[in-house]
Amino acid sequence: MKKMLLAVLVLATFALAACGAGGAVATEASIPAEFAGQTNPLGADAAASGAEIFKNNCVACHGEQGHGDGPAGIALSPRPKNLPDLANTVGDDYLFWRISKGKSGTSMVGWEGALTDEQIWQVVAFIRTLK
Ligand code: HEC
Asked: What is the dotted CATH code of the domain comprising 33-127?
């Protein structure tokens, strides 16, 4: 019985991963309810701390300016895409959700646990300053 449960879980995980990698660009609508509508509780000055966090944790893949051209990013499939372009089309809730939970089917892991909510909001504030 336990094995059966495990098999179902594994299958479900694959199905989910397949959806994530299916190419459909996640729209605002796909933000889970617990994240949807959240706005950055921190002011724009949080971007300074966010820059540090970005440098230490994200630049390797996303590149200094978030253009997806970090040394570890160019070898990935899919490659990290341009964060400032993305930021122009999505809300803070989307960014906070993605950074917290990651993106299935890609090398983007979830950072909740590794970073505090406050640190993730600081990074969101920093991403808003990228061009
Ligand atoms: C191991 C490489 C790697 C690291 C480290 C990494 N990312 Fe990512 N990130 C990716 C990849 C690959 C994707 C998926 C492709 C894409 O959509 O950009 C992604 C996706 C994202 C997205 C969502 C893009 C979308 O379309 O939904 C955001 C936002 C993001 N990363 C922010 C960050 C932040 C902030 C950090 C640091 C805390 C970080 N990433 C660390 C590789 C990485």
From this structure: 1.10.760.10
